[in-house]
Structures are given as structure tokens and as C-alpha cells.
Amino acid sequence: MEDDASAMNDLLDAAIVNSILAPTPSLSEPMHYQQRQKLELAYLRQQAVDLKLQLDALTSTKALEVQTSSNYWEKVARNQKLASEMATLENARLKRVMEDQLVLASALEKVLAKRPRLA
Out of the domains of life, which is the source (predicted)? Predict the structure, then answer.
């Protein structure tokens, strides 16, 4: 995941550097209208490509974050379900132990309640 993020950051850095270092036409030279239009069109096309790369990088980063967060919550849900099932099993076991203890206690009461025979 960190490799993907660093690769996307590298792409973004390259796009930013390219947009900063893109050659701009010199204003001191007289340009014909058509030549200026061609240069502007080429510049805008390059900028569109750079922005598309930036958008793709950001989109894939966001998709990765969403996937990671959904995996996290799925793990949390699984852990909670497992804990709930384990608690239910423990509860049933403790109820059986309590019932056995009650049976034993009532049997002991009956034995102690009987009068001993004195000979």
C-alpha cells in the first residue's frame, strides 16, 4: 500500500514539475496568430494529459483507501460476531454448570434434612 502511495506521489510530482517547466512562448518575438494558436493548443493538450494523470493517481488512491477501510470494518464485524458466538457458548456452558450445582445442592439438602436413626 505504501509502495502504491509513493508511486502515485512520484507521478504527481512529475506532473507538477512538467507543468512548471513547460516551455512558454516568448512574448518578445512576433508570432503569427496561427502559430500562437498551435502552441496554445499543444500546451493545453499537455496540461490535459498531466491533469488526467493526476486525476487517475488521486482516484486510485481514494479507491485504495475505501477498500482498506471496508476491509478494516469487515474485520471488526467478524471479530465482534466471533466474540458474540463465544460469549453465547460460554453462557450456555455456565447455565449447565449452574443447573448441575442446583441439583447437587438439592440432593445434599435432602440428605441433611433426614433425621438420623439412633440405635
Answer: Eukaryota
Q: Is residue 65 part of a domain?
A: yes
Q: Which three cell numbers stand for residue 56?
A: 487517475
Is residue 118, in this structure, part of any structural domain at all?
Answer: no
Residue 119 in any domain: the answer is no
Any idea which residue has 463465544 for its cell? 86
- Is residue 41 over pLDDT 60? yes
Where in the sequence is the domain holding 103, given as residue range(s)?
2-22+31-113
**38 belongs to a structural domain:** yes
Q: How many residues does the chain have?
A: 119
Q: What is the pLDDT of residues 72-98, one digit of tens each?
A: 888 899 999 999 999 999 999 999 999
Rounded Cα distance between 22 and 31, Å, is 18
Indicate whether this model's pTM tops 0.70: no
DSSP labels for the chain?
-HHHHHHHHHHHHHHHHHHHH-----SSS---HHHHHHHHHHHHHHHHHHHHHHHHHHHHHHHHHHHHHHHHHHHHHHHHHHHHHHHHHHHHHHHHHHHHHHHHHHHHHHHHHSPPPP-
